[in-house]
Write a structure and sequence with these properties.
Rossmann fold; 12 helices; P-loop_NTPase
């Protein structure tokens, strides 16, 4: 394992759940954290909110426009392939910000970190064993189920001229990013779990907890 700055040992003890949008990562992480007395780190929340100042400061330092592109440019004018490539290119910088968050924590129990930006190729250098990570991706049928049943998955809540195209672009982008995560995970020997809806969230969490069992120890007393 490469030498990574880890002043409190928190990265060394972290358990990682990466993968795709709408695969249940947050629900699974919270279920495992609750059952085993862990601290959960939600990448998406920090990435969208807590890191905004760092994002703006980086743009200023690079001489880039400070503001985000408008929703029309983000969701309508680009192809899904361009959108996916842009997201993948940005993940390494955003991952370093997440590592800074985790470095500041000290917990006697492991941290369980989840989010689509926790890419297997970025996490792998931190791992003493590939068993410290799992990647969750939905099957195509389960993705369609989530799009039908989750309001936040089924429509974009942004003002654009062509909402149907924007949503189709987002779905196609997410599919490409999910495929990339699964491919990279498998090439690195990291387990991929395809969520197909035959197991409920509790059962998926139990499967992931079993994967992490060597690091969870005895369950805390009720």
């Amino acid at each position: 394992m490469a030498e990574i700055w880890d002043p409190h040992g928190s990265l060394r003890r972290t358990l990682w759940i990466g993968g795709a949008q709408w695969s249940g990562k947050t629900t699974v992480a919270e279920a495992i954290a609750t059952r085993h007395g862990l601290t959960a780190y939600h990448y998406d929340y920090h990435d969208a909110r807590g890191h905004q100042d760092r994002r703006i400061a980086r743009r200023v330092a690079l001489g880039e426009p400070v503001g985000d592109p408008g929703p029309e440019r983000v969701w309508v004018e680009r192809s899904p392939e361009e959108m996916a490539a842009d997201a993948l290119a940005g993940f390494p910088v955003r991952f370093e910000w997440a590592l800074d968050d985790l470095r500041a924590w000290f917990t006697a129990r492991p941290v369980i970190a989840e989010g689509w930006g926790l890419r297997p190729e970025l996490v792998a250098p931190l791992l003493d064993s590939p068993r410290r990570m799992v990647v969750l991706v939905p099957t195509e049928d389960f993705r369609r189920h989530q799009l039908r049943t989750l309001p936040r998955a089924g429509a974009l809540d942004v003002p654009v001229t062509d909402p149907a195209r924007a949503q189709a672009n987002r779905v196609a982008r997410d599919r490409l990013i999910a495929e990339d995560a699964a491919e990279n995970a498998r090439s690195l020997g990291i387990r991929v779990i395809e969520v197909d809806g035959t197991l409920d969230a509790t059962a998926v969490a139990a499967e992931v907890a079993d994967h992490f069992a060597p690091y969870l120890g005895a369950e805390p007393a009720a």
